[in-house]
């Protein structure tokens, strides 16, 4: 994504952000469509370069919509969904059901029935009870992976750690429940055991934990004589929010991961499996920004300055939830000096903060625009109607095109389901 000031005004790929907000309003999510496509292509080229049998599934939860799904299909991506709603969105976009796999630690009976009826390609079974439930509901053979828990602690926020022993996700390889679930899958009527899946956590910046997981998993596979056709290593590849973050090095990292896989397969004499990965954040996060309009600017002399914007935790929950940090740019390159400022939302919570101690122009005032970077993943998808805020509009831009992909919610839609 290239953000540049042209005539003192911030532009994304040549499009004036102020111009976009005049047309689509604020808050506005703006995606660089080429950046989305480019990330998909980078993943493909790593695996293609190694001549591997592989698939890249995008984790819908990072950001999904009909146009996003269409773009993903054009980029030869597969899709990971975790709810009836994510599945419905994908199918409405015409995405082939056979290229979708269904995750979730508590899939409901209704969701399983819906996914079976739609002919979903693969279920990732996450619990002992799900083996029996899925087997009972299926009236023809279904391919399944088992979500295993390799017991790896990764150095990331505890809310987004998932592969450690004490977790609601997956079945442990250490305590034997993973093996037991696989035995049950083998003895079921309709379930075809295809392999295993694990997901270590999110925002991981180096390949270390992935290499470690491979060692643990291959040792376990060889000690249990479990045959896997598919090995799904999950997602979690880190992105840059601020200069403190280290991006997961896609090319170098995967070349080391694949090298490790090859040597482990040799060492344990295990047939090389079909490799799946599920990046979400690393496809979408850095391709998106949010543009807000500034309203009240409140100076508390000698204490701090609050710059309020016309959105907040209803479209940006990661700061309140994880204390996540962001970079904020002014859309109009102001003159004069910058001062320390807190950028806050308009919702009724003190925790409704976008960023603290950011440097913003002293003369920032009502009507100015600011852009918050790296909001393409886990922002729109985590948006809520708290305070009856309307979900923002989303636009995709390329060099020579701008298209609205999600319209702003209307006031009327807020009471659509209300009984009157
Ligand atoms: C969240 C999740 C992903 C994607 O994680 P990112 O950090 O967005 O890459 C992939 N697989 C599973 C099972 C997940 O829960």
UniProtKB/TrEMBL annotation:
Pathway: Amino-acid biosynthesis; L-lysine biosynthesis via DAP pathway; L-lysine from DL-2,6-diaminopimelate: step 1/1. The lineage of its organism: Bacteria, Bacillati, Bacillota, Bacilli, Bacillales. It comes from Salinicoccus bachuensis. NCBIfam families: lysA. HAMAP family: LysA. This is Diaminopimelate decarboxylase. Residues 35-285 form the Orn/DAP/Arg decarboxylase 2 N-terminal domain. Its cofactor is pyridoxal 5'-phosphate. Homodimer. One of its GO terms (molecular function) is diaminopimelate decarboxylase activity. Specifically catalyzes the decarboxylation of meso-diaminopimelate (meso-DAP) to L-lysine. Substrate binds at residues 281, 318, 322, 349, 378. It comes from the Bacteria. Keywords: Amino-acid biosynthesis, Decarboxylase, Lyase, Lysine biosynthesis, Pyridoxal phosphate. Belongs to the Orn/Lys/Arg decarboxylase class-II family. LysA subfamily. It catalyses: meso-2,6-diaminopimelate + H(+) = L-lysine + CO2. PROSITE patterns: ODR_DC_2_2. The modification N6-(pyridoxal phosphate)lysine is found at residue 61. Pyridoxal 5'-phosphate binds at residues 236, 278-281, 378. Residues 29-376 form the Orn/DAP/Arg decarboxylase 2 C-terminal domain. Its EC number is 4.1.1.20.
